[in-house]
Amino acid sequence: MKLYEQYKAHLRKLADLKNAQAVLQWDQEVYLPPKGASLRGQQIATLSEQAHALSTDEKLEHILKELIDSQELKEPERKNVMLSWEDFSKQKKYSPEFVRTMSEAVSKCYHSWIEARKQNSFSVYEKDLDHLIDLKKQETEILGYSAHPYDALLNEYEKDCTVALLDKTFTALHPSLKELLNLVVAKKQVDDSFLHQFYPSQKQWDFGMSLIRKLGFDFDAGRQDISEHPFTTSFNRNDVRITTRIDENNFGNMTWSCIHETGHALYEQGLPESEYGLPSGEYASLGIHESQSRLWENNVGRSLNFWNHEYSTAKSFFPDQLSAVDVNGFYRGINKVEPSLIRTEADELTYHFHVMIRYELEKMLMEGSVSTHDIPAQWNDLYEKYLGVKVPDDKRGCLQDIHWSHGSFGYFPTYSLGSLYAAQFFAAAKRQMPQLLHEIESGNTKNLLAWLRQNIYPWGRLYTSEELCRKATGEGLNTRFFLDYLLDKYGKIYDL
Amino acid sequence: MKLYEQYKAHLRKLADLKNAQAVLQWDQEVYLPPKGASLRGQQIATLSEQAHALSTDEKLEHILKELIDSQELKEPERKNVMLSWEDFSKQKKYSPEFVRTMSEAVSKCYHSWIEARKQNSFSVYEKDLDHLIDLKKQETEILGYSAHPYDALLNEYEKDCTVALLDKTFTALHPSLKELLNLVVAKKQVDDSFLHQFYPSQKQWDFGMSLIRKLGFDFDAGRQDISEHPFTTSFNRNDVRITTRIDENNFGNMTWSCIHETGHALYEQGLPESEYGLPSGEYASLGIHESQSRLWENNVGRSLNFWNHEYSTAKSFFPDQLSAVDVNGFYRGINKVEPSLIRTEADELTYHFHVMIRYELEKMLMEGSVSTHDIPAQWNDLYEKYLGVKVPDDKRGCLQDIHWSHGSFGYFPTYSLGSLYAAQFFAAAKRQMPQLLHEIESGNTKNLLAWLRQNIYPWGRLYTSEELCRKATGEGLNTRFFLDYLLDKYGKIYDL
What we know:
Two copies of one chain form a homodimer. Helices cover 64% and strands 3% of the residues of chain A. Chain A has helices at residues 2-30, 37-55, 58-69, 77-93, 96-119, 123-143, 149-157, 163-185, 201-215, 251-270, 286-300, 304-317, 319-322, 327-333, 351-367, 375-387, 413-432, 436-441, 446-455, 465-473, 480-493, and strands at residues 222-226, 232-236, 239-244.
């Protein structure tokens, strides 16, 4: 069909521009010389402007309208076109002036966040953040919503995600997690001191690379580099880049970042090649993306089954550091639960309190019941209330995340959704493949990857998270799987 | 002036797109995973298409016409506008379809050249090359020419360069070089066996990096990486990337590639920052660019003065390998003259025969007197005729250069022009700074760099090579300087 081919060509051009932008951003994080930063920012902005122009182009509008009117489209073509029409209509809502104002505000806010962190003082960036929050509120009006303004932003990262849905989810989660946390902290703490010895940089790198390879990352279609903060980016399924960082005094930092990013990367490398640039070739949602990283990092990479096989390799890389620790001690140590200040360093249990705090704050900011000025006080109160920890300063408090300075309001909840989906997917995979844990125990994760390739990767974003979850597991999102997983794991580790 | 600001903004956006493309190309040479090649080619093609659209935009046409009509422009604004008008008029000649076809053909040809080299067989890429050559012939018609089709392509790399001019230059050069070569080969050969011992990779890298730093490369505004073939690329004067390669059995390979690319990079890092994206912020021509790399590589980096100071450092890096060689032996060894097969490994004298061979071939290909299929036979004949060497296989013959696979026909002659300009510039610098050689002998190249920063770098491409040469040296290009330089150097080394 000729018109559909035109549609594909247009979307692929758009994908090329976005992926070029991603290459420049990747380079910015891994190899950019310091003085190159300012013009690189401008180069990325120009690509983003060009991409926006292409995504709101009249030609695209005509093609989409004609395709929608025609009766000839079958699935999945029809769904692709409908999703593209949704994207187009949304993009059209933004005036070029608003896009420019937002992009300038983000850039300004990001730099004052850097400065605020340097000075360890929220007030340094309060004004710029307040302006950005004001723009995000305007954005909720531009995008539109029915129940809650925050819904408009949540929907950007996770289609159909709402305050109503998250309130329900977190309300189900909070008391159970709190109860479990209370049980754990009453018990004798596990020993993880062996993780904090000296682990030489090169050895960590080699060990990390061996893990990545074993899990199925295709090094002919991707690579790993070093950056300040680990991330995954993809320029197409045959060029997926992951990064890591190495802390020579912390074995955990690099090891689980490698597994986490590999989870993201396997998803990207598993998206259908023929669908490049189309909705059917893109990841389903941020929550589903995060489910893939967390499934490998936690459900697999922090399981006793996995380390029963892998620990001998770890020991061969680090014989001195690990000589006094058996696999059970190792397993307990890497699963230590402890309320703490920094989200990215939190364990699988307390992590979700960090997310809920941010969610509550964002919700209040968007509905206007809390002002930007109140953020530090609110933040510190919530940390005391949810996790029982006192926040000593802004750097270890409300300045720790980059997200708000980027204007990414509505992003944090997808991290928790990721854990919930991961547990549910892993439970389904185990049900459907009763031998799965035995295979993992013998160092074989191929069938798990095959299951994901069959049940999660092939449809791009033709299904919402909820639809995909139903397809893969037989039911919609259910917090029970994650809670059962935690209860089982910590029940054994902490002898509850 | 408001209109001139609009012009600048437009050109900077265009520069952003071209530089983004350069980032993707750099990444392709240094870090791209193998499977990423095909879609990368498409992404680069899309950027190139977008850049072409911007460079032929009606809005730009209006701005330029209005600026040209207005009487308010002073220099250098007026010259910038005139050069941009020239660029615009030239770009308008290409259809978007032709631009995309060319870009895709280049990408395809490049990958089949890689494969042809692997298989050591020209025929593997003959078909793709033939298609590309056909497109280049079409390009000569699109661009137009008066005397010879090849002129259209030569002009792309070196404004106002023609077959007539190069025939004249090479006719002046050929017999003198031949005569000098005959004198040299009749003499006792110098010993360069010390260059071909084992020089460990990491040590070579460290030595190369120390040289680059000493010559004034700003590592806050650039970096060096490893690639198959050394090259320099710039995304702006604050982000200049050079690459090198290491052969552990050849000390020369990396050392002089480092100096050579540094020469290119110093030029790029020295272009005026405020002129980003404008003709006044771009390099003058490829010949002038090459003069900068060759001036540092040869006139400085292969001189006795330079090594009288630097040799002790080299010895400290490689005490075992260099223990038996004094600085005079080292100097003679690194300047050994010998007819050979590989252009990039050729000495300063025989190098130009390699260029003349390619020049003759390209001229014949463009006028159609030789077909793509005949390239290997013609190549081998010319090597026998010009250099008296027998080409044993395609890899050491017509497959050795990347240029044709990139569609870069008309590029090679700029290498020879580079040597000629370099000799003329260096002679001028010495005349104007009689202490220069003494400074170099004491490890100080700062004033030479300052001279280049004053006489070559500041004008971007506001002057043609010939104009720039006149400004800097008091006369147009004159082969005498290069011939005198060679006669003096080899006269002493070979005791002629």
